[in-house]
Amino acid sequence: MCKNIYQNPKGHEHDLLSLCCIDKTLNGWNLERTASICRERCGGQGYLAHNKFGDYLAAAHAALTAEGDNRVLMVKICKDMMTNILKKGHKLPELKNCPFRHIAKLTDVSQLETLSDLLKYRETVLFQKLVADTKNLKSSGVSGYNILMRETSDVMQNLATAYGERHTMDFCISVLVNQIKNTQNKALMMRVFRLFGAECINRDLSFYMI
């Protein structure tokens, strides 16, 4: 996704750096999880050097800290979001269907467009919470450092993750519509993309239930 956008950044000039940051963080964490789970599933054989799981884990942990610690990059993403939206007039993602009037009545929420709307909704709610919390804490006399690094840390980490997963889902839909022509390949990748979206929703299910 980021490689394509970097080559043609039109429409993403304001958040190109944020997209590169979230691409780095999500890929690093995904490599660590993939390598750890695959090593576990292989049992004792997973310890053999020939399987290279040790190399993958070492690369993953390097990716979590090299060229910017992942958690620090997530804070930067949120700071840039606040600047772009509150000061430069850029907009939060628009939902196609209301989570309350439409999505809540569906018996199947695993379709790609619905998953995309749910991810957009979470991103919007978390951004609004971050803005409100920051304003209230400033008015209470809390220092900017403590607001950034302590009081709003969890919200920012969740918001940056939602931002990255929403962009990932939108790109998956775009690839499915515009790039994959083979019917069998399209059906297979649709299942993969739906699984990704469903996993994101399931991980944060308490948010959607409340």
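(ticket continues) Second input and output from the same batch:
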Amino acid sequence: MTKLFNTQRLQHFKPIRGEEMRGLVHSVWQDIPKAQDMRTKLQVRACNNISRMALGKNFDDLSVITNMNGLELVGAIRESLDLISISNIGDFLPALKFLDIQRVQRRTNDTFETLDTIFQRIVDNRRDSHANIGGGSYGENDLLDTLLSLHEDKRHISKGISLTDNNIKAILWVCGCICFLC
């Protein structure tokens, strides 16, 4: 697991951070005479930065893999964050939980089913593209490559550590959430 978070890995991503920073400066410079929404510009660059480090692609480029436009993916992640923060009456009055008065359970199931599908497509796409280039070990260029490499590494299983697709998708979801918490 030290493969995931070490200084060498951070140094590996330094060019990506630099490119995104230059892109931000360029974007601000282009719009200098106009009023600018800096929050949105910063959030887009932060999302691209995290997405490129985690998945090797810009946030916008994920639409090809997921068969969704970027806004649908953003909407699903934001909805999941909103649902986590909702006070559900069923949590306070368990006798009413089965009624799902606020429709929180239904929305949660629908949203996380959508996210599960999206992240599974991303994982499957990476596996397929890796198989198409001849297999072997993953290049570990980004977080997903590292996770898939750990998933297939049988040495960890003997130590009682196993990384499932659900674990990988959960980590990708956290990366997506970080984009919106910046």
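Agent notes: Residues 4 and 143 are 7 Å apart (CA to CA). The chain has one domain: 7-181. Closing as not reproducible unless the customer responds.
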